Amino acid sequence: MAYEVEKTDEQWRAELSPAEYEVLRRAGTEPAFRGEYTDTKTAGVYGCRACGAELFRSTEKFESHCGWPSFFDPKDSSAVELLEDRTHGMVRTEVRCARCGSHLGHVFEGEGYPTPTDQRYCINSISLRLEPEAG
Ligand SMILES: [Zn+2]
């Protein structure tokens, strides 16, 4: 699949920090409860740290206590791409940025969180950059 933003591995390595590269381009996972946005309640829009595409909003962020920023819905369903992930002996749904294909995290559903969708987009802080609302 072709993405709107395509870069070589070398370019990504040059533009991202080693920790960002590991998660965004190698589908790594940041340690639980360490990410900078885990408990953030600031109003604003979370963009992709790799390409800047708007992905999630603070209005859909909720406290899941799972150790990573959690959202019950993306900003637009077309902003993210969902792929089956069979690594680590599990079947999970990987969430990627639809614009550049960078790894964001995974989405889980049916866990019983009291949210409108019963879905939990479990996203690495390091994959995101919060643009606080003006004012
Ligand atoms: Zn992106």
UniProtKB/TrEMBL annotation:
The prosthetic group or cofactor this protein requires is:
Zn(2+)
InterPro entries (alphabetical): Met_Sox_Rdtase_MsrB, Met_Sox_Rdtase_MsrB_dom, Mss4-like_sf
Q: Which GO terms describe its molecular function?
A: metal ion binding; peptide-methionine (R)-S-oxide reductase activity
Alphabetized, the UniProt keywords read: Metal-binding, Oxidoreductase, Zinc
Q: List the signal peptide residues.
A: none
All residue ranges annotated as the MsrB domain in the record: 9-133
Q: What EC class does the entry list?
A: oxidoreductase
| Gene3D superfamilies in the record | Peptide methionine sulfoxide reductase (2.170.150.20)
Which EC number(s) does the record attach to this protein? Answer: 1.8.4.12
Annotated protein name in UniProt: peptide-methionine (R)-S-oxide reductase
Supply the source organism for this entry. Streptomyces triculaminicus
> Gene behind this chain?
msrB
